[in-house]
Amino acid sequence: MTMRKVITDQNQVLGELDFSIRLMEHLVVPTFVIDPDCRVIIWNKACERLTGLKASEVIGTREHWRGFYDSARPCLADLIAQGRTAEIDALYAEHDHAGDDAIEAHGRKVENWCVMPQAGTRLYLAIDAGPIFDESGKLIAVVETLRDMTVQKEAQAELERLATRDGLTSMANRRSFDETLNTEWRRASRESRALSLLMVDVDFFKPYNDTYGHQGGDECLRQVAAAMSGVVKRASDCVARYGGEEFSVLMPATEPEGARIVAERIRAAVEALRLPHSGSKVADHVTVSIGVASMHVSNDGLSAGLVAAADAALYRAKHEGRNRVVMDDSEPGPATQVA
To answer: Does position 140 have pLDDT exceeding 70, yes or no?
Structure first.
């Protein structure tokens, strides 16, 4: 091989390398590349626009994390370069579950919320990172690409929120209540603690609808729901529309007396609304009846037993004259787990 040929081949390789670098720098997809020591060797213009961090500030450094986080932590490319992919689960909200061979050959895919301190915004990013090896199999670089998925993520979160909210009152719906009940029941069972439930029913609601119409009935339910939410302050408590004119309040780590006090405050708050109710047989305004049940949860119990006990107490509250709080004082029988 002549010297001229060698020089020509070298120039061709260098030219192709230069073209590849320029191509990557101008890709519309935000992309950066690090070497095996985790130093940035490419930070393209799209990455500058996404992060607000200029290439001149990060090229040759290990400070690319500054584009995404408030404090130093590895990016996905760093974990691949350093062979630390076992840490992905702890660092990212969503990630693939590729096997070791796939990781080595194709890299990893993750998703995460990033605070983007330089850009002054918070984004949900889909992140792909893959290794580049030379002909001998030696790692020479890791490429990371980024996609802004914030709009899609927020839309998904809103759909999930709507799926668990009651459309009329904006409080939790029956589905959300059932899921929360089972979750809190398991937690109370593990920790051997009390779990209390209030079942709340608007007194003589059918006559109310007949007198004031369905729009008036809807407004009544909204105001009752707001009054209940104003009383129940703890983030751990679940206030839900159980169905029709019936509401529920699930209260973890709450003893019977504490649950009774909250129930009485709810009853008083609804009565204080003074919503006219000419069809009521107990008052000239809207009132509620409340059944309260509380259990120290054990491993052999079933969550539906708590609901049955609160329902029984509510039935007694109605039977005894309404506009009152009644505590369950019986042991629940066998029940089926709430789905």
So the answer is: yes
Q: In terms of domains, do 180 and 203 share one?
A: yes
Give CA–CA dist 273/326, Å, rounded: 21
Residue 48 known to be catalytic: no
Alpha helices, H only, the chain: 3-25, 45-51, 55-58, 76-81, 88-91, 100-106, 150-164, 174-191, 205-231, 256-272, 303-319
Looking up residue 17, the CATH number of its domain turns out to be: 3.30.450.20
Q: Are residues 37 and 124 in the same domain?
A: yes
Of the residues 245, 246, 255, 264, only one is catalytic, namely: 245
pTM: 0.60
pLDDT tens-digit profile of 186-217? Answer: 999 888 889 999 999 999 999 999 999 999 99
Domain boundary among 154, 184, 218: 154
Into how many domains does the chain fold? Answer: 2
Give the domain extent around 134.
3-154
Q: How far apart are CA 190 and CA 46, in angstroms?
A: 50
Q: Which helix (H) or strand (E) holds 94?
A: strand 94-95
In the three-class reduction of DSSP (H, G, I as helix; E, B as strand; rest coil), residue 143 is classed as strand
